[in-house]
């Protein structure tokens, strides 16, 4: 599994002094990257699948959700993210209630800093070991030109990479109509590196990609070699002929792939109707960094970081998150259901 870096921890505590203490312990004794929340509602909004640990007090705002309800909700949404519950109530019943709510561990206040760091490290290591033991998801993003996938699902691909998934980006043309092919190839390689992806770069003719052969054959070769679990692809609702051709060829070539999702391009029409929204709040910065790699395209209006953020912010309202990337679900078969 890829190196996941510093542990990513969310601390939910309404007492500012206690929150500062817990955050300081986790940062200095665990080396964690810590996000803070003063209440359960804010904490739930910040809870993500790529977190290594959530630490919450039981007795939060009496007018809102308490820590036990937060633990249950986080566990339901993100089963692999452990929750450590802290409480000033030291009774056995409170500990049992916390564990039944989905908490992975319970510690009584006042918390010994070294004990907190020790338990947090154990939970983080246990989660990462479980991720490493699981067969990594194999992800393939297919696009017509350099920068297409970054614009459509760049942050989603970065999220896959952070989760230890094997990400490959297949770019079918050199993008020679929009710039010098060697420069664009170097930019594509740099962007793929930012997103934690492996780049496969082909040389089909820019603006004249076919929806039959050789496009189908090129994609089929990569699909057969990688055997991806998920394919991201251009959508049919697009005014660019290469995008539409890659969509049609990609559907044929990936007909045996369990999950096929279609992303939005700047040239997508108003008929693009997504049914899924990927929360990319944690990785939107990596998308912007990947797009900055495409310096030869920086003049294009759709490369404007403000527009990219505004678009993701708009789609975020449908996901109940700050930033999201939209997807049209073409096929989605659960991995466990495959023969």
Automatic annotation (TrEMBL):
PROSITE patterns, per the entry: RESPONSE_REGULATORY
One GO location term (cellular component): protein-DNA complex
Residues annotated with 4-aspartylphosphate modification: 57
Keywords: DNA-binding, Phosphoprotein, Transcription, Transcription regulation, Two-component regulatory system, Zinc
GO annotation, biological process: glycoside metabolic process; regulation of DNA-templated transcription
InterPro entries associated with the record: CheY-like_superfamily, GlcNAc_PI_deacetylase-related, LmbE-like_dom_sf, Sig_transdc_resp-reg_receiver, WalR-like
Domain Response regulatory: 8-124
Database matches in PANTHER family: REGULATOR OF RPOS, TWO-COMPONENT RESPONSE REGULATOR ORR33
Designated name of the protein: Response regulator
């Amino acid at each position: 599994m890829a190196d996941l870096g510093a542990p990513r921890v969310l601390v939910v505590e309404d007492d500012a002094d206690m929150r500062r203490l817990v955050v300081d312990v986790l940062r200095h004794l665990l080396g964690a990257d810590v996000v803070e929340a003063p209440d359960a509602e804010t904490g739930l909004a910040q809870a993500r699948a790529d977190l290594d640990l959530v630490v919450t007090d039981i007795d939060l705002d009496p007018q809102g959700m308490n820590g036990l309800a937060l633990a249950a909700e986080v566990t339901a949404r993100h089963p692999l993210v452990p929750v450590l519950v802290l409480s000033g109530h030291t009774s056995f019943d409170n500990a049992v209630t916390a564990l039944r709510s989905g908490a992975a561990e319970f510690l009584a206040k006042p918390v010994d800093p070294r004990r907190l760091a020790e338990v947090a490290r154990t939970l983080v290591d246990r989660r990462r070991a479980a991720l490493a033991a699981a067969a990594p998801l194999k992800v393939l993003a297919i696009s017509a030109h350099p920068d297409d996938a970054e614009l459509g699902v760049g942050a989603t691909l970065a999220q896959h990479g952070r989760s230890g998934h094997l990400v490959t980006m297949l770019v079918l043309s050199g993008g020679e109509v929009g710039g010098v092919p060697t420069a664009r190839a170097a930019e594509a390689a740099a962007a793929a590196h930012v997103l934690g992806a492996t780049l496969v770069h082909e040389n089909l003719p820019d603006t004249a990609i076919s929806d039959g052969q050789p496009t189908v054959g090129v994609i089929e070769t990569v699909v057969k070699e990688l055997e991806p679990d998920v394919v991201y692809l251009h959508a049919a609702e697009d005014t660019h002929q290469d995008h539409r051709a890659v969509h049609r060829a990609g559907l044929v070539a990936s007909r045996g792939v369990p999950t096929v999702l279609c992303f939005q391009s700047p040239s997508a029409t108003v008929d693009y109707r997504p049914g899924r929204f990927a929360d990319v709040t944690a990785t939107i910065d990596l998308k912007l960094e990947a797009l900055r790699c495409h310096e030869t395209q920086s003049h294009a209006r759709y490369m404007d970081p403000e527009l990219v953020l505004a678009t993701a912010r708009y789609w975020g309202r449908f996901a109940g998150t700050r930033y999201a990337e939209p997807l049209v679900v073409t096929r989605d078969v659960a991995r466990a259901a495959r023969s």
